[in-house]
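Fold this complex.
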Amino acid sequence: MSAPAAESPRDEWPLFEVFVRPKSGLDHKHCGSLHAADAKMAVQLAREVYTRRQEGCSVWVVKSSDITASDPGDRAMYFDPMEDKVYRHPSFYELPEGVRHL
Amino acid sequence: MDAATATAVQLRLTPELQYVLRLADTGLVHAQRLSEWCGHAPVLEEDIALTNMALDLLGQARALLTHAAALEGQGLDEDRLAYWREHDQFFNLTLVEQPLRKPGAHAPGGDFADTVLRNFVLASWLKAACAALQTSRDETLAGIAAKSLKEARYHQQHNADWVQRLGDGTEESARRMAAAVQRLWPYTAEMFEHDAVDEAARTSGLGPARQDLRAAWQAEVAEVFAAAGLTLPPDTPFRSTGTQGRHSEHLGYLLAEMQVLQRQHPGGRW
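Structure:
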């Protein structure tokens, strides 16, 4: 239960990112961040802060330091979004009945 | 508003009414104490958690007071019961009226360890009470208990984690947690006292006697204490009597603050 001694008081409350999937939702959406002493506490506090303890919703928390983000500086590489190459988009399929959420 | 409603409420007390008020007042007074933390908790997230718990307890108290007013039969309501009773007409556990936060260096009150420990022992007690009350012959009471049980479970979990975290944390936090246990323990005896009100509730199927809650409570508390490296203190001869309407010196001040506006403007609509 007890964590190793933190370098400074600030390190005792690392930042967590919070992802919530509402009761009838399909996927977890990032809804904010919070500081907590450990992951268990982060889940509890996320319920408190972001879901108002609604029943049946799923909460993920991830230490912010564990997230690797794309570099905004790389945008130049993605200058051509292939908008003019329709054959690269999966838009010519007939979907069978009963397939939803695609 | 006529003069009759601008005077203190004198209850027509029955064992059944006193039983319900014990639960209602314990929730109301505990919520009042918890809300004193608003804006003062160690971290923002815990500030939100503490005030959310206060809101849960206040919601439970409102439902119970409304029900108590109906049982009492003089046409009272939750507000009349909350704001127009004197301290000897309140029946909360003495534990919940003890100051939680030190407003000043020389004021009575404890620290965060006191708060999480009090929350924990009370939530464990309310959890046991609500679980048993779900089968009450009084359908309203059973309904309130079912709703409150979910909240009590959450409060218990949240604060059990804190008791462990502090008890098994740093040397300083362990010292404070142990000190909180020493301070609070004498007041826990009242949770399991037995009197005519308990007896009547048990025999009439209204709800559990306080004695009946002890085993479940003790099991939960012992488990968390073991994980937190805390020892259960021995029983002391001290007995508090808030549930009889005889309170510590702290309730009068709490009520003065809580009731002042209603009493200055009787009959005001808010």
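Chain A is about 15% helix and 20% strand.
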